[in-house]
What we know:
Elements: H1 3-16, E1 41-42, E2 48-49, E3 65-67, E4 72-74, E5 80-82, E6 87-89, E7 93-97, E8 100-105, E9 110-113, E10 119-123, E11 126-131, H2 139-142, E12 148-151, E13 155-160, E14 163-168, E15 170-173, E16 177-182, E17 186-191, E18 194-196, E19 201-205, E20 209-210, E21 213-215, E22 218-220, E23 224-228, E24 231-232, E25 235-237, E26 240-242, E27 249-251, E28 265-268, E29 271-273, E30 280-282, E31 287-291, E32 294-296, E33 303-304, E34 309-310, E35 318-320, E36 328-329
Parallel strand pairs: 3-5, 4-7, 5-8, 6-9, 7-10, 8-11, 9-12, 10-13, 11-14, 12-15, 13-16, 14-17, 15-18, 16-19, 17-21, 18-22, 19-23, 20-24, 21-25, 22-26, 23-27, 25-28, 26-29, 27-30, 28-31, 29-32, 30-33, 31-34, 32-35, 33-36
Antiparallel strand pairs: 1-2
Amino acid sequence: MPPNRTFLACLALCVACGCLVQIPNGVFECDTADECPGGFSCWSDRRCYDSDEPPAPPAPPEPTDFDGECGQVVTRNGVTVTLQNDLACDEPVAIKVEASDVVVDLNGYTISSNGEGAQGILVQGSDVVVVGVPSPGSTADIEGRAHSAIEGFGTGVLFRKTIEGSISDVWVSDCEAGFSLTGGTRNITLSDIGATAPTFAGVVVRNDSEQNQVLRFEQDGGYVGVNVEKSDDTLVEQCQITGVEQHGIMVGLLPTDGIDLPSRTIVRDNVVMSAGVHGIVARANADITVSNNRVFDAGQWGIKAEGAVFDEAPLANEVEGSGELDQCLPLTLCE
């Protein structure tokens, strides 16, 4: 006989004999309260009790802060990842962000690769901030580091299909590209960052990216400084680029027929020194504003933007020591 029926039979016998019986809790099985004695409730353990089931205790809050580690993938929104030491990573991507409202705090430390890593930091979320200033009292701060470093990856920091965010106080070396914004990335500000001798470019903005800013970027050596391709409303301002093999800042040089040129690019208040070919160069029909730049000792033209479409009249560009007889093309760029 099932337990409930056995107990009921005994209970009925006791009542018939005039006994006072107290029904114990947890004896009767149930799926609903209708299967319990009167005044009893069916709890989540499928047993009957003479009181309502108390609410479950709240789950402990999930952590919002993590220590950074090699191969980390951030999938939760609203978290902060903070490095506590230098990382030497064998993984293709050291830190990958696939969430929103995330802070990656490099805290003055270095992420390095064995030379086979694809990206130091790959961001595919939104509203993501990457910062590199060491926190007061950290080992990096005590050692006097002014910023964080990423070394030995294909790309130091790559933002792909990212909306809103920033990168600051990070220096990239021994990479193909320092910082790359691609795949429709928009509203990203790069500020107070740098690159040493990238084999391609220090900063790349391309593939339908919009409304991004490159501010106070520094580069020493490498192939190209800042490369803007197929993007809209890019601002390149207050950058200093020295000793590149090709061009300090180039706009729209790589597209072939059928690929859109960048539009509404603003290049102003930059300093380019000792570029191997041109200091600043824009492809014919590129939509660009070039103002208040200083170019020194370029191999060919200081500023070359023949056939470009100028949104505003060029203002006060200064060119000295370029290899060509005329330092700007068109000449009005130097007037």
